[in-house]
Structures are given as structure tokens and as C-alpha cells.
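In full, the data:

***
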Amino acid sequence: MEKQKARKGKLVLLAEYYAFRAALSLARSLPLFVLRFSCRLLGNALYILLPRRRRLAMENLRFAFNGLKSEQEIRQIARESCVSFFLTAAEIMKFHLYDLGADAIRKRGYRTGQFEELFQKARMIHDQSGGCIFVTPHIGNWELLPYVSAHVGIPLAIVARPMDNQHLEKLITSNRTASGQIVVPKRNAMFVLQRILRRGKSIGMLPDQSTGKGIPADFFGRKAMTTPVPALLALTYRRPIVVVACCRSQDDGSFEGFVCDPIHPGEYNNEKTGILALTEAMNRDMESIIRRHPEQYLWMHNRWKEHKNRRSAFS
């Protein structure tokens, strides 16, 4: 990562930054129907021009649905997944990072529906548990969830990988912290997360990316390397894991929220058994949401990647 940063000169980093600011201004000025149409064009271009990602998405879908979807349906879901990828970026720009309260979302033409009411359930779980571990898959618009949490009054720390461009990182981090979020860099985050839970705050994570430091846990009937961090924190501090998501309902600009029932840590024969049980329960809840809206999941990611010389959390 450091080598990659070193290869980028100051002018390139500044060019990326100002290009992002220009895209931000453009997204905010465009009508919603134009923005959605543009995302559809970009998504279709991604589907056509990146055959390796297209094949990976379709392979993942074939395995996940195992004969339940036709080849035509598989192709359509893969294509829509590419469109959803751009919609997520466009929506966050449209709302603007500085102001993502429910009123701001509605002013820009989107409808929250039962979203706020549902996330009061999340607030209740947080209050009753003295903090919990919220997790979400890369589906719909996962970037909205921390702002919704701030809006309903959940003190939340989110785990995020710092961006390679320090100018963009400063902009995005400052906007996130302005809404009351605490941003924890992904590298060596465990100590900070432990301290946050001890203080009665909640944590937000996206645990559905493949990692060589994970454990093999069932996901769509296949072992996927999954981070054990949510389960380990749940066991250590006796806090529940709660799977949440924000998906687009229709093309009418409304959102559908998901707040699953809390996964409480039980009593296990040993720590490894408990970590695996909690991790697979978390994966099942994420899977149930993805099955509802498969066209909004990030199938282009190599979720079932086989890592060479991996360091399992159980080794």
C-alpha cells in the first residue's frame, strides 16, 4: 500500500481530489432521474468492459443460488449489481456528506418510508445492551447507515480502511466525524474497539469481505474466510451482534431498512466454538437480506477467495 502511494505524485493526488469535488458538485446539481440514468449507463459499461469482474459475479451468483436462478436471471442480477455500485456512490454525493439527516434526504427527492421507525428498533437494542456490534453487508447503500444511526441517536464508531489519497481521506473523515461518528482505522483497530464497547457505545462494521486472517464460515452454503472480530468482541464483552442494511425498494427513490433480531452470545464449550457459531449466525442473517435484494449486492468481490499462506484466526 505504501509503495502504491509513493508512485502517486502530488499532482495526481490533487487531480483525484478535485475530480471528486467536481463529481460531487455535478451529482448534487443533476435531477434524480438524470443521475439514475447516468448510473445505469456506467453500470452497463462496467459489466461489458470488465469481463473478469463480470465472470466472477456470475460465478458467485451461480453458486449462491445453485439452480434457483436461470442463466438469464444470473446475467441480469450481475448487470444490476454493477448499476447498484454506481448508484451507491451517486446517492452519497447527492445527499452530500455534510448533511445526511432524514430531512436532507427527503429534500433531495428520496423517501425514507419506514426507515426511521425501523431504526428506532436498533436504538432500543443499543440502549438495552449498553452498546452492540452492528454489521452490514455491501448491499444497497451501506454508507447511509452510520448517518441514520447518528440521526436516531446511536453513538457509533465505524471501522474504515483509510483511503490512499490523503486529501480525500481528510475530506471524507471530517464529514463523517461532523455527524458525530467516530472513525476507527481498520489496521490494528481491536484495542480501540474494545475501549469503545467498554464506554457503552456501539460499533459498525462491514464483515463480508474475504480476509486471509479470517475463519472459514458458511456463507451461501460455501466456506468463506470471514473476520472473527464481531464474534470475538461479542463474546468478550457479552454484547449482541445486529445485522442491518439499507436497500432501495423500487425506482421511486424509497429505501427499505433491515434490522435483524440481535444475536446474543451464549455459553460454549470453548472460545473457538463460540466464535464460529456467532460468525455463522451473522452470515446467515446477512445472507437472508442478500436473498431479498441480490441485485444490490457487490457480487464482483471475490468473496470465496482462497488465500495462500493465510493466517487463520484459529491457527
Notes: The chain has one domain: 2-296. The CA atoms of residues 5 and 260 lie 39 Å apart.
